[in-house]
Amino acid sequence: MAPSSADLILVAYDGSENAQRAIRYAGHFLSAGRALVVTAWEPLARQAARISGLSGVMQPGWVPDIQQEDAALTDAKAVNAEGVRLAEEAGLQADGRCVETETTVWAAIVDAADELDAAIIVTGTRGATGVRALLHSSVADQVLKHCHRPVLIVPPNEER
């Protein structure tokens, strides 16, 4: 059963150490107690097309086997199940959902929050600074810039 939107915490989860930390903070600081752990994924065919386009080399068309589940979705389901388990360990009543990216990961997260009318979005961040941050802004930064609801961004642990 999906949580009601009035008390829904949407947790963006990609399996990283920073995402795990964000879940622990959500369980500790947010009292709603209900969470939907969302893992964004991109089909392998789209990944291959995007990467070949970036390389500037034409690649032959690849048609995935539609009778088998996309390997990227299989991986996303495993990552999402881990996030749900961590959310429950953090004291949240959690459900999980994998959302396919149509354009970007941040857009998939914002769209899911809008669809579910989430009260807040929780996400971790890499904490990139300097030139690295200028060249590649984080998903968390883009969620914050494009979302019209509260966002809790949990920075990385300093003890790495």
Structure description:
Pfam families: Usp (PF00582). This is UspA domain-containing protein. Residues 9-155 form the UspA domain. α1 (17-29) packs parallel to α3 (71-89) and α4 (105-116) packs across α6. It is globular, with a radius of gyration of 16 Å. The model has no long low-confidence stretch (mean pLDDT 83). The chain has 6 helices and 5 strands. By secondary structure, it is α/β, with parallel strands linked by helices. The protein starts with 7 loop residues before the first strand and ends in a 6-residue tail after the last strand. The protein has a single domain (5-57, 68-134, 142-154), classed as HUPs (Rossmann fold). β1, α1 (17-29) and β2 form a beta-alpha-beta unit. A 5-stranded parallel beta sheet has the order 3-2-1-4-5, sandwiched between helices.
Give the strand line-up of the largest sheet: 3-2-1-4-5
Low-confidence stretches: none
Write the CATH homologous superfamily: HUPs
Secondary structure class reads: alpha/beta
Distance between the termini: 37 Å
CA-based gyration radius: 16 Å
Major pleated sheet? 5 strands, parallel
Helical coverage, percent range: 40-55%
General shape:
globular
Total strands: the figure is: 5
- How is the CATH topology named? Rossmann fold
Question: What is the level 1 CATH name?
Answer: Alpha Beta
CATH architecture descriptor: 3-Layer(aba) Sandwich
When the domains are counted, the total is 1
Strand content: 15-25%
**H/E element order:** EHEHHEHEHHE
What count of helical segments does DSSP give? 6
Organism: Hoyosella subflava (strain DSM 45089 / JCM 17490 / NBRC 109087 / DQS3-9A1)
Domain UspA: 9-155
Family: Belongs to the universal stress protein A family.
Pfam family, one: Usp
